[in-house]
Write a structure and sequence with these properties.
Blueprint: H1 9-23, H2 28-38, H3 47-52, H4 77-87, H5 90-93, H6 129-144, E1 148-153, E2 159-172, E3 177-183, E4 188-192, E5 196-201, E6 215-223, H7 228-235, E7 241-245, E8 250-258, H8 262-270, E9 276-280, H9 282-298
Amino acid sequence: MLFHEIYGSYYRTTAAILRQAARGGLTKQGLTALIREKAFGESLLTMPEGLQGEKWLLMRSDLTSTLANEPAMPLTTLEKRWMKAMLLDPRMQLFSPDASGLEDVKPLFTPDRIVYYDRYTDGDPYADPAYIAHFRTILSAMREGHTLHLSYETSRGNRFRLSVAPRYLEYSEKDDRFRLIADGRKRRWTVNLCRIADCAPAYTDVEMPLWPPKMESVTFEVENRRNAMHRVLMHFSHLEKETKRLDERHYRVTLKYDRQDETEMLIRILAFGPAIRVTEPQRFIDLLKERVAKQTLLTPE
């Protein structure tokens, strides 16, 4: 573990409670509210008793703090080095992070020490000034609620101009690319940022309809060999899912995904090989068979 458990959520919650107690006015209702907000549901079974009952010797029974000062949790050297390493990631620089206080800190590691598997090598040009400018323009428009004028080029070389309301940015780890999800007058658009040729805020904001994504679901069984179940849960952690254990080695997983991402879902599921067996819907199974057949034709003998 890189960071000691003392900086975990339980300790941050306790610190928040003790700060409120030191300032005065902490009530039982306020204590419960802080635990619900900052910790976990089961924390209500242990934390109030430990604090109110003087078990931990941090508070008195009248909910006043026994500490002379408010608790502070300064960053450790290891945490600072980790943060400095994260700030060296070119993707992180797109968000204009504040690195104040880390000027003389040595990074824990550098980006060249990271080896990526199962990822394409033609990712977005994160160091390109035009790409950075487009990213920050989009980010600013999302935060301020403005519409955008976009000019982008498709994979076939066709150029389009759009007026859209940006909804969110998503990152594909496999493709190493950012995509903009935006609503236009007639439909929802998914645009690769690397294909944007021009991007500027609209002079006059136009109210765009909110186009809900067309959601689909796929169900598959996982044979838990070579830690397959753990890899599946990590790989699809960003998707809404339902998981059921069938026996000691088999699990059933149902994922919900945006219909626009169906091709990517096919590729990602195929990447797990025989560890995954898709059971429904039949339409998705047919798409898998069709893709496998095409790959077989392209594979040299």
